[in-house]
Design goal:
about 240 residues; alpha+beta; Aminopeptidase; seven-stranded mixed β-sheet; 5 helices; about 20% helix; protein N-terminal-methionine acetyltransferase activity; acyltransferase; chromosome partition; Acyl_CoA_acyltransferase; EC 2.3.1.48
């Protein structure tokens, strides 16, 4: 079943929210317009670009795309898991029967967050909540800057903000500090820099730094502290200088 896309996002009180509007026929947009309920379709018809979940027969094509898009080499088991294990939210954008975009994510218990990211939520929330983690998001070069990545991301955000998923309090991801295009994309979608991860990635045998970015949803929030309102500015200033 293709996820519902008839949602309009809005940003309020530091949290990304969604309100549903009826009879929408336009599901593609280039950016998140927080002031208008209408946007122009980017493709000539609704059938031009479709969203569907990955299946085992996609494995070889997914592997080729990931090798083309990402500098990180994933093990064979990872490809098998994301194309067959239902715990992954593995969504594909398909154009003329070819995969042109992918979003791989999962929703997991907050106590399963890795040590380096434990600080993304207020400690009082950890016992009864989940978090979403975006493993990968990529689009073929000829389809970039046409709203495909936003469409994939919006679908996942719609999923985790449904009434049955209100226990999900944050969405987080990791990104190379040198990947300025991805950083701009996530910041445009209201993700905020949370932490700096030195030597987090291994790329071509060399250690590279990363960032953790977080988007709070469903009433989630970070640990409160005197420095929190200025934390993002401090991190960016420290990294740049």
């Amino acid at each position: 079943m293709v996820p519902s896309l008839d949602v309009e996002p809005f940003f309020k009180d530091g949290v990304y929210n969604f309100c549903r509007y009826s009879n929408s026929k336009d599901s593609n947009r280039d950016n998140h317009d927080t002031t208008s309920s209408y946007f122009s379709p980017l493709f000539t018809s609704a059938a031009d670009l479709q969203l569907r979940f990955l299946c085992p027969s996609d494995l070889d094509q997914v592997k080729e795309l990931c090798k083309e898009w990402f500098p990180i080499q994933y093990p064979e088991a990872w490809y098998r898991d994301i194309t067959s294990d239902p715990r992954f939210y593995s969504l594909a954008a398909v154009y003329q029967s070819k995969l042109v975009g992918l979003l791989i994510a999962e929703v997991k218990q907050s106590d399963a967050i890795n040590k380096e990211d434990k600080g993304i939520l207020d400690g009082r929330m950890y016992s009864n909540c989940t978090v979403g983690y975006i493993l990968s998001l990529g689009v073929c070069s000829s389809f970039r800057r046409q709203g495909v990545a936003s469409l994939l991301l919006d679908s996942f955000l719609n999923h985790v903000t449904q009434s049955e998923n209100q226990t999900c309090k944050a969405i987080y991801l990791h990104v190379l500090t040198m990947n300025s295009a991805a950083i701009r994309f996530y910041e445009k979608h209201y993700f905020r820099l949370h932490s700096f991860l030195p030597y987090y990635y291994s790329v071509d045998g060399k250690c590279k730094d990363g960032f953790t970015y977080v988007l709070y949803i469903n009433g989630g929030h970070p640990p409160w502290g005197l420095l929190y309102p200025f934390l993002e500015t401090i991190l960016k200033y420290s990294f740049i200088h």
